[in-house]
């Protein structure tokens, strides 16, 4: 309980410092991703119930995906790149309102709610999610230039096998798990939970990573699916507009 108290105290401080804004200019700054990148596939996990919470997440009013104009333009370049190699991009999440992040925080504080544990965090006790930074009071997604995605193989008509699911809480999700993401060299290895990925699965992760980095995105060291535009236009702003179709 002391850890939860500290987590909420930290949250209160962050709320006092962060710029969480309901922008009247939001629709001038953001776009629907499919309007700019029509080839992407959407599977918006937080609009449905197959996610680590097990419920639709606050702020997700429609199963669409939004990004800043700048991030969407860069993602179009990524899409064109991977299409030339036989893939399409599949998006799980993009812009995330602060209301959604707050929902995650409330869920993490409720230690009795472990409905989705076997699917997303079977190796962890829920009480460690705050201290291990799986759940945080602020998210880069809320700034509007971060996207969670994978590859879809047009030949097999299936998702590319990345050796792990989106939003898996564990070291197996790290880009450097079983290899060096800087060189692309597979090294093998086993996690503390006795899990591993194959050379092919690691190589698949690297295909996505290279395409994203080649077109202006930067990676996260704990999630192979997570990328943020390097030159994001709102680095200090955390938006709270809902995820829905934009009225242009």
Q: Concise description?
A:
This protein has 248 residues and is α+β, with helices and mostly antiparallel strands. The chain has one domain: Muramoyl-pentapeptide Carboxypeptidase, domain 2.
What gross morphology would you assign? globular
Largest sheet: 6 strands, mixed
Structural class based on helices, strands and sheet pairing: alpha+beta
How many strand segments? 12
- Overall average residue pLDDT: 92
Helix content: 25-40%
Overall CATH architecture: 2-Layer Sandwich
Beta-strand share of residues? 15-25%
Give the low-confidence spans: 1-17
| CATH fold naming | Muramoyl-pentapeptide Carboxypeptidase, domain 2
Overall domain count: 1
Topology order in helix (H) and strand (E) letters: HEHEHEEHEHHEEEEHEEE
Specify the CATH class. Answer: Alpha Beta
Number of helices, where a helix is a run of at least 4 consecutive DSSP H or I residues: 7
Span of the ends, CA to CA: 47 Å
Rg over C-alpha atoms, rounded to the nearest angstrom: 18 Å
What is the secondary structure topology, with strand pairs?
Blueprint: H1 2-17, E1 19-21, H2 26-29, E2 30-32, H3 33-36, E3 41-42, E4 66-68, H4 69-83, E5 87-93, H5 98-109, H6 117-120, E6 146-153, E7 158-159, E8 179-180, E9 185-186, H7 199-214, E10 217-220, E11 223-229, E12 237-239
Parallel strand pairs: 1-12, 3-5
Antiparallel strand pairs: 2-4, 5-6, 6-7, 6-11, 8-9, 10-11
Helix pairs in contact: 4-7
Keywords:
single chain, Muramoyl-pentapeptide Carboxypeptidase, domain 2, two-stranded parallel sheet, 248 residues, alpha+beta, disordered N terminus
């Amino acid at each position: 309980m002391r850890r939860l108290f500290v987590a909420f105290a930290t949250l209160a401080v962050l709320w006092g410092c962060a710029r969480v804004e309901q922008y009247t200019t939001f629709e001038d700054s953001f776009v629907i991703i499919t309007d700019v990148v029509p080839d992407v596939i959407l599977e918006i996990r937080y609009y449905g119930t197959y996610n680590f919470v097990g419920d639709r997440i606050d702020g997700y009013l429609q199963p669409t995906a939004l990004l800043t104009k700048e991030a969407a333009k860069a993602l179009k370049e990524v899409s064109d790149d991977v299409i030339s190699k036989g893939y399409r991009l599949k998006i799980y999440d993009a812009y995330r309102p602060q209301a959604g992040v707050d929902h995650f925080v409330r869920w993490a504080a409720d230690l009795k709610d472990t409905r989705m544990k076997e699917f997303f965090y079977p190796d962890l006790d829920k009480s460690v999610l705050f201290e291990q930074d799986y759940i945080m009071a602020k998210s880069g997604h809320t700034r509007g230039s971060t996207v969670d995605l994978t590859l879809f193989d047009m030949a097999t008509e299936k998702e590319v096998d990345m050796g792990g699911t989106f939003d898996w809480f564990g070291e197996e999700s790290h880009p450097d798990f079983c290899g060096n993401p800087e060189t692309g060299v597979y090294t093998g290895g086993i996690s503390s939970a006795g899990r591993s990925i194959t050379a092919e699965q690691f190589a698949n992760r690297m295909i996505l990573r290279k395409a994203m980095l080649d077109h202006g995105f930067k990676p996260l060291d704990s999630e192979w699916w997570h990328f943020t535009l390097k030159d994001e236009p709102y680095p200090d702003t955390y938006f709270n507009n809902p995820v829905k179709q934009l009225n242009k």
